[in-house]
Prior knowledge:
It contains 17 helices and 22 strands. With 561 residues, it is α+β, with helices and mostly antiparallel strands.
Amino acid sequence: MDIVDRSTDLSQPLDKLGPDERLKHDSNHLRGNIALDLLDRISAGVGAESNKLMKFHGIYQQDDRDIRDERRRQKLEPAYTFMARVRLPGGVCTPAQWLKLDALARAHGCNTLRLTTRQTFQFHWIVKEDLRATIQGLHDVLLDTVAACGDDSRGVMASADPEDSALHAEVASLAKAVSDHVIPKTRAYHEIWYGADKIASSDAEEPFYGRTYLPRKFKIGFVIPPSNDIDVYTQDLGFIVVAGADGLEGFNVVIGGGMGRSDQDAGTYPRLADVVGFIDKQRLVACADAVMSVQRDYGNRVDRSRARFKYTIDAKGLAFIRTAIEQRMGSAFEPARPFAFTSNGDRYGWRQTDRGLFNCTLFIQNGRIRDEPDRTLMRGLRAVAAVHTGRFRLTPNQNVIIADVTREDRPRIEALLAKHGLAEGHAGSALRLNSMACVALPTCPLAMAEAERYLPDLVTKVEAILAQHGLVDEPITLRMTGCPNGCARPYVAEIGLTGRAPGKYNLWLGGGFHGERLNRLAAENVGESRVLEILAGKLGRYARERRTGERFGDFVTRSGE
């Protein structure tokens, strides 16, 4: 396979490419001036170039936007803090790791943890002086933040809780192996955050990524039918598990998904991935390398807004891209094997696995772990982690599974959940249980409207409409983001809301319940009253006119509204 970096061997010379490409090229493999900027005590932040490079290290500079205007009036710099995202392949976490994450969040993260839509943890509100301590603390339990952001292969997802636990264990192991394989190999992370010495070597520091890495971020996920919990069609590269009587046989491969778009650029759009064929499991790593190298070499490095893999496929043509992948993989794809999805949500409460163990899924509204007066979620999960002998699994829907609980330990864990107000861990309407939101304000610099802080109140108002029509128990996917980038995958939701301005959203309707169909724009730049008015009309018609077993998104699409 061709793994030589060709990112500067394009039709445009380096000085004609985008500024981000030049920054990466000149960064000394992601070192830049990060170490010096961390020493600066005059500012709570870092320079613009370091801010971009630190994303490859899993770290975003942010500021408290609730007080940004007031600080500007006082002629103060923004209240800078940092978000650090953990690399956690497949969302699998040990109790020891959970306890360390909890301790770091209390010490440096404002007493809260955030579960993401890609099955990992985010720390918010970390001050610059605490960044090294946080990352070194993660290292104590074999965790890191490498490539959790940046123009590289980001965190690898995997179905959280399928019917077959043995199959899941194998797939989770493969997800970790792929994650470990595709992360950047630069020593910059170890030097800057762990204080490791720079090692002189004649070997290429980045034998795959080269000096300019990928044109944009790249997302990989594994899914085990019949659950499409990772929304595989939104991944740049997705592996759909094909299992037989003897276990895992291979994967149907999908390429070219992505949610991001811009309201100001009609040339950007969400896209669902295409199924290109089947591979046996022995070709997994070769396939991942081949797909990523095609995007590395043919992706757009001039126009960053058109640099995701989905645009490369649409520019070059699916047939061209598939042939290029097959050439680099060293073999052709086989015809795709049959598969079907029937759900993409989580199954709450207690269930027994095929190994005689028990899993308990807790609903974590919008992924926010913190203590409330009547639900001490953070303390409760800390208490569970202190006695749990199994694993925790984060789901793609921002929830947590207390996994692999023995029959003997279950009563003790049930008692702890009850003590901390978590016994009814799945309380809520079907709509609430199938909702999720990105962080948005006050920390995300891209957010134009609220999401996490607002969605629970909006759900309550939509629940009232559902109650009027006898639909409270009807599962409907609802997703909200504070901007059009789509971190909560709103464009495949039956009801999607993307922020346009404070209190204003684009409303999208008609996505597939299993993530198999994009929704359509129903209203642009509207406030809550108009959103509720539109939903009241649609849901009323749905209650009266739906067919037996018809999902809300399917009804909206069929009715042509």
